[in-house]
Each structure stands twice: as structure tokens, then as C-alpha cells.
DNA-directed DNA polymerase
Amino acid sequence: MQENVVILDIDYVTYEERPVIRLFSKKGDENIILIDDTFEPYLYVMSDDVDECMSEIKDNIDVVRVEKVIKKDFQIETEFVKATFKHPQELAKNRDALRDLESVIQIREFDIPFYRRYLMDRDVIPMTEVTAIGEEIETFLDMDSTKQDIRIIKLTDELQRVEEYPQDFRILSFDLEVRNPHGMPDSSEDEIIMIGVASNFGVNQVISTKTNSEDRGDFVNQVASEKEMIEEFVKIIKDNNVDIIVGYNSDNFDFPYLKDRAKILGVDLDIGMDESDVKFIRRGYSNAASFKGLIHVDLYLVMRRYMTLDRYTLERVYYELFGEEKIDVAGDRIWEFWDSGGEELDTLFDYSLDDVVSTLKIAEQTLPLNLELTRIIGQPLFDVSRMATGQQAEWFLVKQAYFDGEVVPNKQGSNFADRASAEDNEGGYVREPEKGLHENLVQFDFRSLYPSIIISKNISPDVMTLGEIENEDDYNISPEHGVKFKKSPQGFIPSVIDKILQERFRIKRQMKESDDPREKIALDVQQQAIKRLANTMYGIYGFPRFRWYSFECAKAITSWGRQYIKSSIKKAEEFGFYAIYADTDGFYAKYRKE
């Protein structure tokens, strides 16, 4: 059978001692889980004697197979041993044993998670449509299509991407209000008094055991108990087949609190596509609330990367985005409003609904960019929305390396010396602003300054030369530090940035030519996402945990940047202008009166 489905999420399970990929997908209102047991985990091994290395691995390590492959290592074609394992856990268990083999110099790509490896190797992009060919089955492990509202398809062919077009997703925002008379809410004793929900499919309400005044609208859904409140929340998600659930600080507060209260009250939060409960997965320095096939996005984390503010409260972010004040109730007074009833209770209901409506508006403003980043990076939206910008850029490069036949370097670690060196980089040129009120200013701004420097000067670790050189004409040599980069061939990272910038310029031309407002919006989101990735690339050269970390590259980029901005200011002075402020990639100037 053949079905066109939209991929939402991915994981893997173990069946008969083998890893099985599960792709949580949808076709309209149908929930479809694709099963693929054909993919195997692997890593690459470097050795001076590949044949000897293959024999040593076979004799000492439990592998499915070893084979000799030609891949690129910093653009130089190199023989590697590709070692394939039965299960990702076997790969992880044998990493140290592999390193200890006498013929092994280094192992590579051992730390790429299995599900991410699958997405890259099979060119499957989450949140996009694919054609799935396979056999429909009734059950698989704890999934049962006759008991659960799902279809299960065991793939017989590799997935094929369908020509892209904007996907519409069912989005629900939610927020909890808690009665907290003793200060910080304690889930072991402080009850949930309201659950607000807002959506892009018509459900907008506050679920509570109390109700508001008749003249304040009928948006309150009154139930008999806190237990019924949580059950009604679960029912709304299931009945409306939600694709994306968003909250604000929901990783740290709402979902952990809801899970605790649900457990105390005996309610199942079985809102995953396979009716699984919430799980908390380590992402960065904190835990992220995850559901199978229901994508949870915490907008608090997104907004910390989306804009630069002094604080990131929902009220502050909403005002910055929309220029409107939202209803606010001090957290330590929520219980007083609840207990007092009357006008204050009405205000609390209004506040609860305003919270989720505001959160939904922020989601509708920012999710398109995150969806586009998901498409470009090729990793799940759940992960992308929690990645720092440097991580997003790195996974994009890892994906591009696969398609270029390049084996990615290992992370170099982050010892104190690395961090101290990184802090020594002078950074971009800044001229403090001239105090006063200025009129008739001109602005000069470089287009994509640092990405352009990386491309034009071919700044990349694989073409960098630290020793003596014979002919300076064959190199780009950075000012101040004299770091040398071959003019050819084009380095890996400059080649990737060059491609994506050309794609951005193509999209911007397409925007100008388009007469379709919807297409213009979609294209604008695409070019913004590409711009963010490109502008991130230069900064992560100086981050010691970056796979392509190079402090020399980071220094060279900023030194050329300072040179360009200073020379531009000097050139402007020749025409009678003088700069009153400069920062990294541009400056403001006034005309000097005689």
C-alpha cells in the first residue's frame, strides 16, 4: 500500500534485539505510525593500515560487518573502516574497546544519535510530506490499531519526499493557574485551579471548578473537581487531534506540575499518539517534556533566542512583539483572587484566558521560522526549538557533510585553556556613540559581513596553513594575526555558507517577483531562517565544543571585519562624512559642515 503522510516525530524502539525506527505521522485526521527495521547504526574508524584494522575489529569486536570506504576527511579523500553494529547500544558499548585496538587511530561519528542518523542518511525531513510504501499491520509491540486510534504501516521501501508546500498544523496553547497561599507552588499540596487553552482551530476556554460572571462571556468550562479539570484537558487534546502543543516555561513548570497532580489524582496523561504519557528528556541543562507524536514547544526557550531583552516574562515578550499590554496578575496574589470571588475572580479568569491567547499569538508569530529551521536542519521540531543557535548551525553542517561525503570531526572538548583563548578574541569593531540628538544621518551597512568574509577569504580549518608558505599569492592572509588560508580549493564551511547565501538571494528575488501574498510570507520566513543560520556560522568557530572549532578562524574573521569597517569609515571621511557610531558591520555618519 502507498500513503502520503506528514512526518511529525521520530524515535526508535527495540524489537527482537534490533532497533526499529518509528515515524509518527498524519494524513489529515488519521494518525499513522511508520515502522522501519532496515536501518543499522554505524561509525567510522581511522587507521594507518585499513586491512589490518578490519581484521582486528572482526577478531575483537562484536560487529555486524566491517567494510572499507572512501570518504573525505577535511576534503582529502581517505580510506576509512565503516563498522556496522546490530544495535545503537552495542555501538555505544564498544566505543572504548574500538579506541583501544592497536591499529585504530581514531573513531568518528560515534556520537550521532540513531534517530538523527536515520533522518540524515534517509533524507527524511520532519514536518514535511513523504510517500510511504509498505504493509499495514494491526499490532507492533504495545501499539494496537484496533484498540488505539492509529494505523501502523511497516515500510518496505525507503520514504520518498513530496514536493514541498506549506503545511497547516493544529496548534494548542495551554497554561496552569495554581492556588499557592504559601508562596512557590508545591505540587504535593497546592491544587490546580484553572487550565487555560487557546487554539487555531476554535477551542478557547478556561477549565475550572468555578465560573465567572454571566456578563464576562461564556469562555469558562466549569467542571466538578481538579481531577475532572485535568481529564477535560486531556480530552480536548485527543478529540481535536492536536499536532503541536505550546506553553510558556512549560518544560520547567506546567508539565512537571501537571504530571505530579495527575499522578496524585489518578489521571492518565496519555496524550501521545500511541497513548503514552509524558516523558522528560534531557535537553541542554534541563529536562524537556516530550510526547510521542505530539510536539511540545516551550516558547520561553524559543524567545530567549528570538530576541534580546532584559527579561523574558510572557508580558514583556508579548508587548515587544505586538506593542500591547496584556492582562497581568501578580503570581503571589493569584490565590487571593481565587478565594475572594466576585470581580477579582472575574479578573483571574480573564488573565488565564489572556495568557493562553497571548501564547498562541506568539506561537503563530514565531513557529513558522522554527518550522523552516526544522526543514533546513532536518532534525525534529522538538529538538530544533530547544537547540542553541550554534547547535542548529552545527547539525546543519553535519547534514551537509553527509551529502558531501565528508566524515565530520569529533568534538574537541572544552578545557580551560580553550575557553581562555576564546575569550581573547577581540571581536567586532565598536565606536561608542557620540552623545546628543542627531539629524540627517546616513547609514552604511555591510550585507552579511561575516558570512561574506568566510566565503571571500575561504576561512575554514581544512584550508588553513599554520606553518611557512612558499607563495603568498596562493593564500588569503588575515590582518593583525597573519592567519593563512589557501585560495583554493574552497573550504567545506565556506562552500556550505556560499550555497545557502545563494539560496537566500534566489528566494529574495522570487519574493520580489511573486504577486501571491501567502507565497511572499512563506518565502520571507525561508530567507530569514537561512540568514540566521549563516550569521551564526562565524561565532561558533570560536566555541570549543563546536566540531569544526578553530580559534584561528574566529580571530581571522573578526580581524578582517574590523579592517573593513575601519576602512569604510575612513573612505566616508574622504567624502565629507564622519561616523558618530559604529558597531561590527555598519555605522551611522553625519555630513561634516565646512
Summary: Residues 569 and 579 are 7 Å apart (CA to CA). The domain at 411-591 is CATH 3.90.1600.10 (Palm domain of DNA polymerase).
